[in-house]
Design brief:
It is a single chain. This protein has two domains: 99 residues, no CATH class; 44 residues, no CATH class. It is 37% helix and 18% strand. It is an alpha+beta fold. Strand 1 and strand 2 form a beta hairpin. The longest helix is centred in the middle third of the chain and has 26 residues. The chain has a three-stranded antiparallel β-sheet with strand order 1-2-3, covered by helices on one side. It is extended, with a radius of gyration of 26 Å.
């Protein structure tokens, strides 16, 4: 440090803080735990080489809320002075590269609007993922068949042929086999979870 005078140096030495503050943060998230990358697990389990394990596209959202003054007693010792009221949500996705902003006075209708939109975009992402990981799945199926795997609405007592699987892939039905981890990402604020939960309770 450089001081402009001896007086400033004396003041600095006199008022030096002797406490050391160490801030530490957990290496892994403790509240929100993202789902495991199912593709990485499949690649490892079946020793598949030269495969891209990363999910390419995500949907993210961010709530904006206003504070509504309230004086609600909550328990013996707590008084809520304000309530978060969601008024708008921005939603973006990397597949369509669209950004949408939803605004609604009714928080439940706001959630209905955004989840309908997210559902529509998720279908496109699911089909993209089916196409991207088709070769990995075919290697697994060729090596092990399908008996014992979970495919919604399919009789597992039978072993299916590649012809059956290719038909499902073309129709997009095969995606349920993956158990892809959620394509839904989250905004930077943990308070977004609370806003969602509050409206859904």
């Amino acid at each position: 440090m450089v001081f402009v005078s001896a007086e400033r140096v004396k003041n600095h030495k006199k008022n030096q803080c002797e406490l050391v503050n160490i801030e530490s943060f957990p290496a892994e998230p403790t509240i929100y735990k993202p789902a495991q990358n199912a593709i990485r697990s499949l690649i490892t389990k079946y020793s598949i080489k030269n495969a891209d394990q990363y999910i390419d596209h995500f949907i993210v959202y961010d709530f904006e809320a206003i504070l509504k003054p309230t004086a609600t007693q909550h328990g013996e010792n707590t008084v809520f002075t304000n309530e978060h009221i969601p008024v708008s949500v921005s939603v973006a996705d990397s597949l369509t590269e669209e950004v949408r902003c939803f605004v609604n006075d009714d928080p439940k209708m706001l959630l209905t609007d955004i989840f309908k939109y997210i559902g529509d975009v998720s279908v496109k992402m699911q089909q993209y993922n089916v196409n991207k990981y088709k070769s990995i799945l075919q290697k697994i199926i060729n090596a092990h068949g399908l008996t014992g795997m979970e495919i919604r609405g399919v009789n597992l007592a039978k072993t299916y042929k590649m012809f059956d699987v290719e038909g499902w892939i073309e129709q997009g039905k095969y995606a349920s086999l993956f158990g892809f981890h959620s394509t839904l990402g989250f905004g930077k604020q943990r308070s977004d979870y609370g806003k969602l939960k509050q409206q859904l309770d």
